[in-house]
Amino acid sequence: MTVTVTSGPVSAFALASRRDRDASRNVVLVGFKSQGNLGIGYLAATLESVGYHVEVVDFEAPHEEVLATIRRLDPIVVGFSLIFQFYVHRFEALARFLRASGIYCHFTIGGHFPSLSPVETLALVPQLDSVVRFEGELTLLELCDRIGLRQDWRELEGIAYVDRGTVVCSPLRALLADLDDLPRPHPTVETRPLLGHKVAQMVASRGCARTCSFCSIHMFYRLAPGKVVRIRHPAEVAREVRDLHDEVGATVVLFQDDDFPMFGPAWHRWTRSLLDEIRKQDLVGRVLWKVNCRADAADPELLAEMRDAGLYMVYMGLESGNDTSLQVLHKQTTVAQNEAAVATMKELGILFDFGFMMLDPSSTFESIADNVAFLRRIVGDGSAAAEFCRMVPYDGTPIKDQLKAEGRLRGDVCNPDYDFRDPRIELFFRRVNEALNVTGWIHGLRALSPQLKFAWNELAMMERFTPSLPDLRTYRDRLQRITRESNETLMQVVEDLIAVCRDGAEQSFAPDELADRCEFYVDALLRERNSFVAANQDPLLAAVGLTV
Amino acid sequence: MANQPEISRSLQWWPWPPGDPAPEIWRIINELDRRVQVQVVDAVLNTHIAIARAHVEGLESIRKIISGAKVG
User: Fold this and answer.
1) Do B28 and A86 touch (CB under 8 A)?
2) pTM of the complete model
3) CA of A292, closest CA in chain B: separation in Å?
4) Contacts of B26 in chain A (CB under 8 A)
5) Which CATH number fits domain A20-169: 3.40.50.280, 1.10.10.60, 3.10.450.50, 3.30.300.180?
6) Whether the complex's predicted ipTM surpasses the cut of 0.85
7) Which residues 189-208 of A are in CB contact (within 8 Å) with B?
8) What is the pLDDT of residues A475-519, one digit of tens each?
9) What would the DSSP string read from start to end of A167-188?
């Protein structure tokens, strides 16, 4: 929102900055700090920019530790950042503990689930005074200002609260028109390094123009007034990358945009402007970066230019290898586009990662077989580790509403679930889950597929920053062979369980044997990786400015 | 095989998901893993409880037989 005054247009943030306030009080934000948290980083930076002292507390810290910080700071507001609805009960437990320990300041909460389901959130976490809905920087700031000045905060735009047993939702606040008005996010936590390279995260845009039925992102941005997709100025983005490089020492930047702006002519122009700015800032060869995009945005010419300016990886939400499933998911892409996008990445030598839902509400054994065949086509060569999940019906998504209307929605807010049309698919899901969870193939950071993915990231670092390492090609071949064999075993397990659940066939693999196979691949991976890294320590350390 | 201690601390194997746009999803996955583990623990405990109950029932039936037996 911009308001015109005599001196010219003034942004909503600039207006908010000029407001009367008593910024002598503290604010505590509680959220996940693992792997960084840009959302909380932006909130903290906004408050700090007008003088508030903000401390960010890790949600996973012991309750006593959170309590000690809050007692020490005596804040006017404690803000909880609930990223996923699965954790709502754990937030309630913390809030209950804090209240029982004598913390009576204002408790508020933000995030996708609280924004889209404020009534449920306030019922599940009755200790809350308010919910900050949707983009929260300006609302949280105004909330703190009003509470600090002992003014009525219930008139604020963009909040929800309980009034005499009824949830009141105030009018929604407009989305920020210009993201560059905001101060840069406060670094809540340092991201883990990647083969010694410092990694930073940032965004070049917010919002997604698409309407996938399973995703809450577009609902989050679409309900509030204002433009859904906001893109930063290319020069500002490149300047932030440069500062992250110079001030933090980051040589890897992960763009965590909902959908990096590279679809269609207008966004091609924007991306090319960004590449110009990256070159102007002399970042080529100094910083590698990663983006998230859709398969239909994988333009070979543009991607080649991006690669030459430092793009090393692209994460794509491919989601399915079956066109009916893609339609049900309202992905607005086709299997052919998914395959073409992967082929482009391989041809250009860009590492790719992908989101993939083996199961969705429309699943049949035929669609699952299509998915397996698709995964074989794209990663059967071992170019990336196969991974998949089951679609989860998040609150606020069209598919959840559809499942509810069809009487297929099951579970609760923390464990949303649904019935498949063919009950044998549920059995199949359980069997796949048991087989792969027990062996540690897919789920968890120490599982095989995620470890393979990390090894591919490390390899990309080596190929870009230290391409002359001896035997680098051999190491790539070995990593690809392990990945290929792991993927094939995974596909065989899925196919085997299709035959078991659909045709009543005997299971051909023993769980112990599968666990042994998984352990074998993990051992092989770590043996190859550690041998290669140990043999090349000097140049690898030199590449990050260190010595043995 | 090269062991981790032979490798400089900066280069040691410490995997995390750089590709995933929502690293927090791994927290959920871990959480779900824990739920599976809880189910397994629950099943194991149920088995143990069933065994213990059967054992108690067996002992009680022996006591019943013994208490009904006439001495002498």
Assistant:
1) yes
2) 0.88
3) 7
4) 444-445, 450
5) 3.40.50.280
6) no
7) 192-196, 199
8) 999 999 999 999 999 999 999 999 999 999 999 988 889 989 999
9) EEEPPPPPPPS-GGGSPPPP--
